[in-house]
Every structure is written in structure tokens, then in C-alpha cells.
């Protein structure tokens, strides 16, 4: 039996806490999906936070060099809640939500054969879950893989952008803006 296998019975009670306080790092695939679904400008969907606003010391690759300094791209909040959290504490973009939301709160480890080795829950908020549900290992594995693939591809692009900004700085040129970064990623701007 895998460590933490009891969490396969996790059931979300819909308390909405994970969509309130914690900030959710976004990648370009998440953002493009939200832009296509909502028709909003990508610049209005995201927020750029400093290392003082998000605990990501263990993921330096998430920091983008911008004109205003190094920032992590996260999903924007309004009045302490995700901008897409409805008044009834339900997600208004559920089918299009970021993969980080889809994997939450599972933090799994797998064996080489794909079997579950360990399952823990991410402690990002007061998650008022119940343990009377059913989740299958394969579903969790596929979700995690999709998230990790998009995230690593995004970090490769961030590294490319950051190298380019360092070159610009050395030549005495301005470091790029958030808009330039999003265009570099290929994120569509609805009005352009
Ligand atoms: S996109 Fe939806 S699931 Fe994700 S944090 Fe916002 S409200 Fe919650
Ligand atoms: S904090 Fe936990 S129980 Fe509450 S909505 Fe998020 S996943 Fe569900």
C-alpha cells in the first residue's frame, strides 16, 4: 500500500479556500486558454508578484526579468479572491481553469511502473476536504503529467527570455515589459 493512499478518498467540499488566499502561478498554456474562453486581455488576467509576495525560493526558474524587476506571473485576484471565483464560491471558468487548479491539492509520487508510491496533500490553505470520495491513480498521474509538461516548457521559455533581457541590459537597452513578454510567449491579445 502506498504512503498516504487514504487520500485517494479525498473529496472537495467546495469551501473555496484554495481560490482565496493562495496565489496561483500561471504558464502560457493556462493563460492562452483563459484568454480564448473569456476574451479578456491577458494583461488583465495576470498579476506580477515579487519574491516577497510569493514563497517560491525553491523555483527560481519561475521568475521573469521584466522592466520592473524579477516577477512571477500569477492568476490575478480581486479583493482577496481569484478573479474567477464566483459569489457562490464556485469557479466560473471551471472547464478552462489552470492545470495548477486541476491538480490541487494532490502532490503524488509515482513508481517507475506508474503505480502510486506516495500521496500527500499540498498545504497551501485550510482545505476543508472530506475522505469519502474516490479518485483513481491514473487520472491523478495524467493530470500531473500534463501540468508538469506545460510548466517545464514554460520555464524553458522564461529562461530564453531572461537570457535575452540580460543581453539587452549589457548593451544598455531597456528590459522588456510584461506585454512584450506575453507576445514573446505567443499569447494572443484579443484586440490585436
Ligand atoms: S481559476 Fe477557478 S479553480 Fe482556479 S483559483 Fe480561480 S476560481 Fe479557483
Ligand atoms: S480548499 Fe480543498 S475542499 Fe476547499 S475548495 Fe479547495 S480543494 Fe475543495
Describe what this molecule looks like in 3D.
The chain is an alpha+beta fold and about 190 residues long. It has one domain (about 5-185). It contains five helices and seven strands; from the N terminus they run ααβββββαββαα. A three-stranded antiparallel β-sheet has the order 1-3-2. The protein is globular. Bound molecules: iron/sulfur cluster (SF4) (2 copies). The site of one iron/sulfur cluster (SF4) has 10 residues, from loops.
Average pLDDT metric:
95
What is the alpha-carbon Rg in Å?
18 Å
Number of helices: 5
The biggest sheet, with number of strands, parallel, antiparallel or mixed sense and barrel status, is:
3 strands, antiparallel
- Give the names of the bound compounds: iron/sulfur cluster
Helix content: 25-40%
Class by alpha and beta content: alpha+beta
Total strand segments? 7
Shape: globular
Low-confidence stretches: none
Number of domains: 1
**What is the rounded distance between the termini?**
54 Å
